[in-house]
Every structure is written in structure tokens, then in C-alpha cells.
Amino acid sequence: MYNLACARPLAKALRAAAPVKRSAVQQRRCLSIHEYRSAALLESYGIGVPKGGVATNAAEAEKVAKSIGGDDAVIKAQVLAGGRGKGTFDNGFKGGVRVVYSPREASILADQMIGHKLITKQTGAAGRLCNAVFIVERNCLVNGAGLAMATMDIIKLNGGTPANFLDVSGGATPEAIRQAFDLITSDPKVTAIFVNIFGGIVRCDAIAKGLIQVVEQMNLKTPVIARLQGTNMEAAHKLLNDSGLKIFSIDDLQAAAEKSVQFSKVVKMARDIDVGVEFTLGI
């Protein structure tokens, strides 16, 4: 009895000292949540996100689109996979991310998405079931998603509504700028173009030359507000302001955003009453 009692504490100590045998396979924990949940989480911490809402049926989609207001919105299939915009549903409907121009159209497209499997490069042939859609306001030619988000935020803070988000990444070449402007100006509701680029990989003066070339080639009438920061920014500023074109170079982000919104309002008013308008900027 005595020996057994003494052995128990010893065995306990040996077990405590022995290394714990762990699995050779390391566990991975990943957080993957739908876009509308991510937006709600960001908004709960005071971070600005586009106005929108989630819908689980066609009637809800129409209601959300009405609440957003404006002339258009974007409807996005809530499926945990990349490549949704180029995906195809099992009913043959193409595109899991679409622009809609009325609440009724939002309802029709939601009906094509909800309850059907979206097939993308990431899902494989089996696809993934879409149980909900996220409808948001359609939201600036920029390089870098962070800079794009900041640009949209400051335009909103100045009373404007971004009509288009276009990221040219590190390739702000004349060809890329031309393609970007072609896309942007294809929307007749665009009344001003705010170019906000950090010139790191591509020098600011090279970007400025590309902008001038494209605006001249397109005979662009829409005012362009350019904020180019980084390498050779002073040379870029001079090139743009000496070009004689409707390109206004402004270094300060707040001032550039404010002028973009003001230009947009003036152009819209002029279009509404069908008159021409010319701009000069005393800077």
C-alpha cells in the first residue's frame, strides 16, 4: 500500500515531463465570409463602405435597389469563390457580377442567380450554390486598391458619387490609359474624371505625357482632374498645366476631390440644359 502511494506521484511527474506527441499535420484556420458580411463588419467599426444590402429573393433585391437610389447599381452573387464576374450559372445565365439600371432589372437578375450554382475557375465543374445577392451602389482611375478606396471615400465626403472604379495597377502606360478612358467615357453619365495615381513603378512625368496624348487623341470634352504623386511629380504638374487641355493638375487630395465634384456638378447642369461649357482653373 505504501509503495503504491509513493509510485503515483512519481508516475504523474513523469507523465508531465514527457513530451507531448503532436500530429505531423499542422492545422490551418481560415476565415472566409461573404462580401456583404465583410461590408457589415467594416461598417460596424466606422469604416466607409458603399451603400447596399443583401437579398435572398427577387422581391428583396428590388427593394434593396430602390433603397440605394441613383441611376444604377451592381448586383453580386454571394458565392465564396473568385472569378464571379466571368462565371456562368447552371441555368446558362452568364456573369455573377452585373450592373443593373433599375430596381426591376435587379429583381430579374436576382431571380437568375439565387437558387442556382455559379461555376467559376475556382469552383470547378460542380459550382457553388448562390443563396443570396449583394446589391451596392456603383462606385476613379487609380493604381492600387487602397488608393482607390481612399479616392472614393474622399469624393463621397465632398458630396460626389463615384460612377466608376478603375484600377490600372502598375501599368499606367499610354495604352492602358487609353483603354481606361475608353471604358470610363463609354458611360454617358460620367461628368468628370479624377485620376489619382502614385508614380512609383512608372514616373509621374511619363504618366502625364500619356494622359496628354490620350486626351488629345480622343478630343476629350470631359474635364480631367489629375493628382500625380511620386517620382518627377513637379515635371508632371508643369506638363499637364501647360498642355492647354482640360486636364487640371492638383497636388492636394482634398482640393482635387473637391474640384472633381464641382466640375461634375457644372457639367451635369450644362448637359441638362444642353449648353456647352469651358473651364479654366486659376492655379
From TrEMBL:
Annotated Gene Ontology cellular components are: mitochondrion; succinate-CoA ligase complex
Keywords, alphabetical: ATP-binding, Ligase, Nucleotide-binding, Tricarboxylic acid cycle
Say yes or no: keyword Transferase present. Answer: no
Q: Which Pfam families match?
A: ATP-grasp_2, Ligase_CoA
Which processes are annotated in GO (biological process)? succinyl-CoA metabolic process; tricarboxylic acid cycle
GO molecular function list:
ATP binding; succinate-CoA ligase (ADP-forming) activity
Which pathway does it operate in?
Carbohydrate metabolism; tricarboxylic acid cycle; succinate from succinyl-CoA (ligase route): step 1/1
**InterPro entries found in the cross-reference section:** ATP-grasp_succ-CoA_synth-type (IPR013650), ATP_grasp_subdomain_1 (IPR013815), SUCC_ACL_C (IPR005811), Succinyl-CoA_synth-like (IPR016102)
Per its record, how is this protein called by name?
Answer: ATP-grasp domain-containing protein
Organismal lineage: Eukaryota, Fungi, Dikarya, Ascomycota, Pezizomycotina
